[in-house]
């Protein structure tokens, strides 16, 4: 199965459109789109708007392809603790975290009959490669209100859609104790697990890839030379002298 996946961001040039990158109906089974900050009113121009997401979904309808939200998470975190300055300036202090992002995504799902939704349930700040990037804390169970509505509208089937849940949602269904939440990711920047995964294992693999062929080829050449000497006629020296 081949999924043609668009970020749902503006085109770099007015001369470009989705057809400029589309390989053709014969090759594509599904069309996917990302939803991060596009549904938020403070989304920067380069990050895309709801209209950019809808352009991808309309494109899929035109080509009669099933659609999926291939990756999604509320950029800035559920409670916007890692939100940008623009978000802080334009944010309504009483805005509901569910309506602000999840409700809008579900609205898009309903409007365009999206068949699959991939939500990234993650504490981004605790991961070195995403620390201070701006994604923030997006684990559903980190917010009681969001967790309750997720159960009511997604997992329990009380909404006007039926969602078939697949995958693990760690800590879902229970409130996360504050002691279990990582508040200072710098403490976890580099651990023994990182050393094992990113340094030691790659070093061993690279060493084996280099030295094994070296010794194997060296051994074969050594055997070839030995075989050549053994096959020399036993009376070769006598014949040469005579």
Query: What is the overall shape?
Result: globular
Relative helix content: 25-40%
**Mean pLDDT across every amino acid position:** 78
**Tally of DSSP β-strands:** 4
Pattern of helices and strands: EEHEHHEHHH
What is the terminal-to-terminal distance?
77 Å
Uncertain runs with pLDDT below 50, 5 residues or more? 172-176, 178-190
Number of helices: 6
Strand % is 5-15%
- Rg (CA only): 29 Å
Biggest sheet details: 4 strands, parallel
Strands across the major sheet, in which order?
A: 1-2-3-4
Structural class by SSE content: alpha/beta
How would you portray this structure in words?
The chain has 242 residues and is an alpha/beta fold. The protein contains 6 helices and 4 strands, in the order ββαβααβααα. The chain has a 4-stranded parallel beta sheet with strand order 1-2-3-4. The longest helix has 39 residues. The termini are far apart. About 7% of the residues have low confidence.
List keywords for this structure.
242 residues; alpha/beta; globular
Give the SSE layout.
Blueprint: E1 3-6, E2 30-35, H1 50-62, E3 67-72, H2 85-90, H3 97-112, E4 116-117, H4 144-155, H5 192-230, H6 236-241
Please give a quick description of this structure:
The chain has about 240 residues and is α/β, with parallel strands linked by helices. Helix content is about 40%, strand content about 5%.
